[in-house]
Amino acid sequence: MSALLLQSIRSLVSVTDDQWQRIEAATVQRSFKKDEFISRDGEINRFTNFIESGSLRVFHIDSDGQERVIQLGVRGWWASDFASFTNQQPGLLHVQALEPTELRSFSYEAVNRLFEEVPVFERFYRLLIQRAYAAFQNRVLQNLGMDAEQRYLQFRQLYPDLNDQIFQKHVASYLGISAEFLSKIKKRVYELDKQQKRATKPS
Predict the structure, then answer these.
(1) pTM of the entire predicted model
(2) Distance in angstroms (rounded) separating the CA atoms of residues 22 and 54
(3) What is the pLDDT along the chain (203 residues), one digit of tens a residue?
(4) Which candidate, 69, 67, 89, 93, places its Cα nearest to that of 80?
(5) For residue 6, how many other CB atoms are within 10 A of its CB?
(6) Hey, which end of the chain has fewer CB within 10 Å, N or C?
(7) 110-140 burial by CB neighbour count: b if 16+ within 10 A, else e?
(8) Rounded to whole angstroms, how far apart are CA atoms 181 and 151?
């Protein structure tokens, strides 16, 4: 039984034990080694993925050969090339494991079958996509209205697990800056944190 997946679903909708058993039976357990690709640019993504352990990144390689991280994911998160999965057309993104990673995946056919047979799953999936789209819009607005340090502070506040677990170069790419510049920002933020702690420490 995947208690973590059940927790994710029940965070958005209520499901009975029978509904949960039918949902879980539709999943496929998949394991990936560090740096192994889960799906690639140009392929049709057949699965939507829930991360049971490990971490991954979703990224695009631009015309200059630069990698642009679109999404990061850790334990308890959903991640895939959603556009390719939804439209069943060749995608523009790579999905890669950053460490040994275990997924609970739903195939395109399984998702659509569950929509028919377990309607509450369709409501869950709709709410999941709506939240992901809202988060994406917020990220676009942050990139437009915040400088690099502000974006990092916001990222650290919203995603402390990502900040601690994901390699700095991937966090930097997600934030749209170089790893060297992120290192300077983190050093400055660390020094400011130390100053604030000293200022508030009882004498």
Answers:
(1) 0.85
(2) 25
(3) 689 999 999 999 999 999 999 999 999 999 999 999 999 999 999 999 999 999 999 999 988 888 899 999 999 999 999 999 999 999 999 999 999 999 999 999 999 999 999 999 999 999 999 998 898 888 888 778 888 888 888 888 888 877 777 888 888 888 888 888 888 898 888 777 677 766 666 65
(4) 93
(5) 15
(6) C
(7) bbeebeeebebbbebbeebeeeeeeeeeebe
(8) 13
